[in-house]
Amino acid sequence: MLKKFFVLFFVCSFSNAQVINIESLRKPSDSTKWSGSASLDIGLIKNVNSIFRIANKVHIQYTNKKNLWLFINDLNFQKLEGNSFVNRGTQHLRYNYKLAKKLKLEAFTQAQYDAISQIDFRGLIGIGPRYKLSSNDNYRFYVGTLIMYEYEKPSNDVIDKLQKDIRGSAYLSFSLYPTKTLSIISTSYYQPKLKAFKDYRFSSDTSILFKIYKDLAFKTNFNYRYDRFPITGITKAQYELTNGLLYTF
Q1: The domain 5-248: what is its CATH number?
Q2: Would you state the pLDDT for residue 43?
Q3: Residue range 32-43: mean pLDDT, rounded
Q4: What span, in angstroms and rounded, lies between the C-alpha atoms of 140 and 148?
Q5: In terms of Cα–Cα distance, which of 22, 57, 21 is closest to 205?
Q6: Where are the domains of the chain?
Q7: pLDDT at 221
Q8: Taking the CB of the first residue and of the last residue of the chain, which one, N or C, has fewer CB atoms within 10 A?
């Protein structure tokens, strides 16, 4: 059965960061089924500049007892005062294979571009184990450690060179369900370059959902990203806060 989720967010944005919270999109299941979601974010921000923002995210997932396939297409367009639209996007494909009750083998590939962060193209491919620390009806905790290859091509407007690196990727994820109407989902990543651990990235994404009605929830999401050595001219820290409505059926 195909299950779709439609999201309309009214956005308060403080940065150009882009973090995909894979954990908030996983739908645990012991049976074979399809599921998915589609979201539309629209925002008008006024600070030093006036910024108009529109974003669309589509997620499709297939699961059975041993396998999980998950695909995400995330597109974002922003218009700064007096300037034309600039865009960024991410396409992410992830596969999980169940090795044991609490252990899975995880592999992924990702393509990304980000005009605001001066990234013409960033490609990733990685693999590693994912372990369930603990879970019951009220919470779930996971850790994962992966090794990944990164290819990054800066835009033609900056002097940075093409990067081809091997990075580690370690993450901690948890989902909390303190009440029937409240859910908290958070994931934090640490990604150092293996040949130079001082060159690392850290990101964290937290979503809070308040159930309003049977199929309707209010959602607040905060993500933070820190890059120790970003592309020239780009700030090290970026963060974003969004609020909106989530409708499921």
Answers
A1: 2.40.160.40
A2: 66
A3: 75
A4: 25
A5: 21
A6: 5-248
A7: 80
A8: N
